[in-house]
Amino acid sequence: MTIRIDRKLLEGACKEIIETILFCLPSARKGTVYLIGSPPQMVATRITSGILQEGTGSISWGLPEKSDYNPPGKPWSDYRDEPGRQPEAMAWCVERQKSWTVHDPEGDPRSATRRGNGSVPDSHHMEPVLIPKKDLFPRSNGRPEYPRNYDGEVLWRDSEYVVAAVIKIHFQPYRIRIGSPETRLIKRLSRTLGTELLSFQLRQESMEAMRRLAQDKIDSCNLLADSLRNAVTKSGLINSLVKLELGFLRDQWERALLENSDKRNMKREAVEGLRELLGRVKGRREEIRGLAMVQERALDLLLPPERAETWIRMQVEERWNRLLENAPQKEGLGREVKRRIDQLKRSFYLGKSPDLLAGFRTLPDSVKEEWVALIYQESDRVDGAFLDRLTHMLEHTSLGLPFQEKSRKTLLHLKTLAKVMGDLESNTNVALRQFLNSRNGEMEPRAADAGRNR
User: Fold this and answer.
1) Pick from 86, 79, 87: which is nearest to 46 by CA?
2) Which of 5, 283, 307, 403 sees the fewest Cβ atoms within 10 Å?
3) Whole domain around residue 33: which residue ranges?
4) Where does 137-284 have alpha helices with state H?
5) Are residues 14 and 141 in the same domain?
């Protein structure tokens, strides 16, 4: 399979993500996680399913008696889109690496109801769990052979990601919409699941490398040299995952802080204003289309304020400047563009705005000050002491963030993983030095003997 971890760890991670979603989304009633196996077969296998029991608040776990995706699973050739075969949402998620929402089961082209298999009409959302190829297959000779769709096109050829799993959440009938807050939440949590699965795999790989070290000294030397290079690479990955989690925490915090503020839609208003202004601009179509795509990305940007401002200046403001310079525009357009860009920049500083913080009375001032300093810290690297302070802060229930316990667990996993990687690198260096010293000791007498023979 694409993700290679212990079965119990895999089921535990899947159950935890399902439990989080079912307890946080009132209209959600059932969740399932499917693992997508290694290419080219890419067998989709149901790992676990959980159903929220009404009135009890508990979840019952288990697989249905009959399902095409129960172990041993369903290979890609059996669920991909083909003429004469009813299309499945699973095929869409895997091939296109995009989500699929079934709002109207009877009218949706990829609904199980349309396949005539006796299924009860069911509203649900399916979200692919994406993991970067470079993290799963760091060595060039380890690239797998990806399958093709019915038209002969290689899957994921131009994508930096692979689909490691698919999350499916069932909702009460007609209670889910395409692009709704519920679907965006599931998308964010799919990234968390991908992070957790990858961290488990990295930890398992590290432990396997340490056990192999004890088996054979010479073979282990070559293995450890390779593991050392991977450890250094993964150290940067861990730092990136921590920053991603910090961005998620900042997003939760700003939503809570701005919930009752007239500035809560400031970022979206700025982007919508720029979008409207872009429709009035004269210029090359390619430039306008590229700028439109970049502006929309600003809505999902999870960078600290200073870095977000730099990103906006380089990606949005400079493009606008070139566009306005290269073609004559209506009078006053440049001033309005500058006003909207300044508004967009300011929106990233709202989470640390003194006025807004003063009105947020749920937290004591001392806790509030430390929390804001932590999540908006400007640093290229984070250390264990920082993670200790952050996880300690996340124990404060008065924060009231919807996923703070999930974030706390993820950060604890990453801290453990960072320590394992550090220990692995240190132990590898010691073993290599010992091995090289012993090899040098063996070679010196041979050189002396050769001198005597001459």
Assistant:
1) 79
2) 307
3) 7-177
4) 181-213, 217-257, 266-278
5) yes
